Amino acid sequence: MSNRIDSRFQSLSEQGRTALVPFNTSCDHDPACSVGFLHALVRSGADVLELGVPFSDPMADGPVIQVASERAISRGVKLSTVLETVSEFRRQDQQTPVVLMGYLNPIVRFGSESFAAEAAAAGVDGILIVDCPPEEMGLLRAPLDQHGIHSISLIAPTTTPERMKMIADQARGYIFYVSFKGITGANRLDEASLVTPIENIRSFSGLPVAVGFGIKSPESAAAVARVADAVVIGSALIEQIEHSESEQDACRRVDDFLAPIRHAMDNSA
Q: Is position 199 annotated as part of the catalytic site?
C-alpha cells in the first residue's frame, strides 16, 4: 500500500533536498482557521506536516506546546476534531503527508482499530506516539499496517546501539531523532553532536532521519539540513503565531518565519 511519506522523501532525495517538517498543535487557535493554516504551512515550504493531538499531560513537551494543547482543549478539541481537520485539508491537498504526533491515551480511548480506520479515511499518513515504546506498539501496529499508516519511531541520545537496532527494525516512514535530552523548545542544540548518532541510525536503517528539538532559526535549520534528511520545527513556530489576531495574520507570520528557513535549507550545502 503506497504512502505519501515514502513518495515525498523519495522525491526529495532525487532532488537532493532536505524535508522541512513543521509541527503545530491542531486547532491551537480557532478550529475554523486550522485548515487554512495547514495550507499556509505548505505554501511556505513545508514538505511534511506534523499535527499535534492536544493532550492534557504532554510530558515530553515544553511550556510553549503545553500551553498550545491547553488552548485547544479549552475549545473542545479532541482526537475526532483533529481527524476532521485532516479530512477537510485533504479536499484541496492530496499530496502533502500528514503525521499525527501525540500520546497514547487518546488513541486507547478511541479504540485502536477504529482509530486506524478513521485516520486512514481522513488522509493521515503516519503517527508518532511519544509515550509508546516499541514493546507496547503490539495492539496498534497491526491495524496501522493494515490501513497503510506508518508508525514513526523516536530515537534519543540515550538510546543504546542494541535498542537503536530494535527500533530501526520496526520503524516505518522515517525515524525521528531527538537532538538532545530534555523537553521540546529548549535551546541547547549542538549541530556537531548530530553527526555520529545519525550515522549510527543509518547503519541500522535505510529510512530517512528527521531531527527535531531546539531548531529555531534559518541558521540552525541549515546546519541540521546538512546532516539529516528532515528538519522538524515546533515550538519556535508556535511562538511566532500564538499571538496572531486572525487567520490572515497567522498565515502571514507563518510565511515570514518559514520561508527564510526553507531558503536557508535549500542553500545549506
A: no
